[in-house]
Amino acid sequence: MEAVVNSAHDAVIAVDRHSHITLVNEHAKLLLGLNGDVLGKPITDYIPHSDMLRVLKTGRQELGDVATVLDRSIVINRIPVIVKDQIVGAVSNFKEIIDIQKMEMSLRKKLHENGLEARYRLESIIGSSPEILYTKEQAAMFARTNATVLITGESGTGKELFAQGIHLESTRAMGPFLAVNCAALPESLLESELFGYEEGAFTGAKKGGKPGLFELAHGGTLFLDEIGEMPLRIQVLLLRVLQERRVRRVGGERIIPVDVRIVAATNRDLAEEIEREHFRADLYYRINMLKLDVPPLRDRLTDIPELVKSMVQEVNEHHEQKIERIDDEVYRILQGHTWPGNVRELRNVVERSVLMARDGRITAESVEFLYARKVARPASGPGTSRSGHIDPEAAKIIAVLQQSKHNKTLAAKVLGMDRTTLWRKMKQYNIQ
């Protein structure tokens, strides 16, 4: 009996019908501050107003009671021992709340099969230009707070890297980091992904239900990418969670408290989206507490050599072909490009150049195809307004489509969106 009780994770103490201690493990002695041999002695000698006396009298179990003992917050369960309808004793098991929180956090991570662990720190974001250094300083300052952060910037600028960096620099670094692309999921699926669902909530729902990302990110950070694409109905639900810090699963009645920091990102102008009634103003003001603008690659061209060298090193590790030299002319050509796809486009160019390189050397010939990527903006045609000015987003889509020879899968990858979103935007801007 002693071996079994001492191996338990919980602290355990038991008394007989006369409230004398009959069993106690070392964990309980430590939490209660008990010294020496306490067996056979009244529990009131150590805890004058012990609640075990009430359980002996009423025969009712008491579960989940929270108390403070020796400056420790603990959760206590008290259960009567009944034999042949007679109360012959009581057992109390308890655990420190901090231990429960650690177990809960570990469980949340394991439950989410597609969980994303933050890997990039702010210092690992490459670049020494004034623009990127300022952005990293701002991100580090934002990380020291617990406020919601809105990261803005064009597709491919590395907004998620900054989100991960903010998480790892914050007090939540030991907690989970989960991410969801709000544009990649249909409305019903996005709702169940964010808020979870109860068993039987809809056809195909898992037995026992499923926790949502808000529950799984408890104690950590939830990254909402492309929040500007979030459907209006989901925006209402998100606003409620941000205000109340509680969620309710789809098809459920339970209210579940959550402690989650939100980092959102968008490549859209949300102020314009509000005017077009595509985004709620109240949600915008809620998430726009701290705003981080990530500069496009064309505004920090001096970072290209550093970026290219790092990317080549990564590609070398994954391919048999090893690059040992990069001609200076290559950097001049790369710095003369406008980079509508930003760092993501640069990575694709580097990977292509490595595969095309000969004798372990990247030459100007390897990247000369960039000259063909210059796109003249038409005075009229797809994506242009009545005044003849082309929409910036439409211009970017047209440029990337031409660069990818209208390979929509590749174009969507460069633009940082899924194929469905690209098709929708092409239709919106009348791009063939």
How does the helix and strand content classify structurally?
alpha/beta
Give the number of DSSP strands.
16
Q: What is the CA–CA distance across the termini?
A: 77 Å
What share of the residues does DSSP label as strand, in percent? 15-25%
Low-confidence stretches: 375-380, 385-389
Strands across the major sheet, in which order?
A: 2-1-5-4-3
Supply the number of helical segments. 18
* Sheet with the most strands, sense and barrel status: 5 strands, antiparallel
Shape: elongated
Helix proportion of residues, in percent? 25-40%
Rg over alpha carbons = 30 Å
* Mean pLDDT over the residues: 84
Summarize the structure.
With 432 residues, the chain is an alpha/beta fold.
What are the salient characteristics of this protein?
432 residues, alpha/beta, five-stranded antiparallel sheet, five-stranded parallel sheet, 18% strand
Can you tell me about this structure?
With 432 residues, the chain is an alpha/beta fold. The protein has a five-stranded antiparallel β-sheet. A five-stranded parallel β-sheet has the order 7-10-13-6-14. A hairpin with an 8-residue loop joins strand 11 and strand 12. Helix 5 packs across helix 6, helix 12 crosses helix 14 and helix 17 crosses helix 18.
List the helices and strands and how they pair.
Elements: H1 2-6, E1 11-16, E2 21-24, H2 26-32, H3 52-58, E3 62-69, E4 72-83, E5 86-96, H4 97-111, H5 130-143, E6 149-152, H6 159-169, E7 177-181, H7 187-195, E8 196-197, E9 210-211, H8 213-216, E10 221-225, H9 232-244, E11 246-247, E12 256-257, E13 261-266, H10 270-275, H11 281-287, E14 290-293, H12 304-318, E15 325-326, H13 328-335, H14 342-356, E16 361-362, H15 364-367, H16 392-403, H17 408-415, H18 419-428
Parallel strand pairs: 6-13, 6-14, 7-10, 10-13, 15-16
Antiparallel strand pairs: 1-2, 1-5, 3-4, 4-5, 8-9, 11-12
